[in-house]
């Protein structure tokens, strides 16, 4: 079976589940479209815990996303394909999306960059973040906007980038100095102002 045939076969396998089990469609639409807001709120929460470990984790995750997106753009120049709903008949398309190059999946790159980083930093509870990234990737196929190959390549790019960043960035002196400077400024700005009495 050729790669393209396998790609289409796996897409049909997942996407057709929406036709067989339509009561799950609203859940997968929510995951595919709106789980990104949960991720954003989680990043804000981790940052404002004012914990050095959490902040280094967020910096690593953001850096991983930037690196992964750059690699993803290069991959998109080497290979490109449009969304399944624009190339295949009878696709169970559940969300609106402009037709463009869907390879690799930006959503998958975003979630695996952050969730894989959270997994490496958080150990115990980190597995839940990894499961979230996988579910988001599957949801993009379920709603008809990505092929499995779009998702798999996006995940592989992010996993590779995460590992590289995780083992290098926290050791960089200028990153730690920059974080220390930020925290000094933050403490200065947030410290209570002493009011003087007028006589």
Automatic annotation (TrEMBL):
CDD domains according to UniProt: PAP2_BcrC_like
MF terms in GO: undecaprenyl-diphosphatase activity
Superkingdom of the source species: Bacteria
Domain (Phosphatidic acid phosphatase type 2/haloperoxidase) ranges: 61-166
Gene3D superfamilies for the chain: Phosphatidic acid phosphatase type 2/haloperoxidase (1.20.144.10)
Keyword Transmembrane: yes
GO cellular component: plasma membrane
Transmembrane segments: 28-48, 126-145, 151-169
Record keywords, A-Z: Membrane, Transmembrane, Transmembrane helix
SUPFAM superfamilies membership: Acid phosphatase/Vanadium-dependent haloperoxidase
Keyword Nucleus: no
InterPro entries: PAP2/HPO (IPR000326), PAP2/HPO_sf (IPR036938), UPP_Pase (IPR033879)
Protein name: Bacitracin resistance protein
Organism of derivation: Schinkia azotoformans LMG 9581
């Amino acid at each position: 079976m050729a790669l393209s045939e396998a790609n289409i076969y796996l897409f049909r396998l997942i996407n057709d589940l929406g036709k067989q089990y339509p009561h799950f469609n609203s859940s997968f639409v929510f995951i595919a479209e709106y789980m990104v807001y949960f991720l954003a709120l989680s990043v804000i929460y981790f940052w404002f815990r004012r914990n050095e470990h959490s902040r280094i984790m967020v910096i690593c995750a953001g850096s991983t996303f930037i690196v992964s997106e750059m690699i993803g753009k290069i991959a998109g120049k080497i290979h490109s394909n449009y969304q399944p709903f624009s190339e295949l008949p009878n696709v169970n398309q559940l969300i609106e999306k402009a037709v463009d190059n869907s390879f690799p999946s930006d959503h998958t790159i975003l979630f695996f960059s952050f969730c894989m980083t959270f997994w490496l930093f958080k150990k115990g509870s980190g597995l839940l973040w990894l499961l979230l990234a996988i579910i988001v990737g599957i949801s993009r196929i379920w709603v008809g906007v990505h092929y499995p190959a779009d998702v798999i390549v996006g995940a592989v790019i992010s996993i590779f980038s995460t590992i590289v960043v995780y083992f290098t960035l926290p050791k960089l002196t200028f990153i730690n100095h920059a974080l220390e400077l930020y925290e000094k400024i933050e403490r200065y700005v947030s410290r209570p102002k002493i009011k003087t009495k007028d006589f």
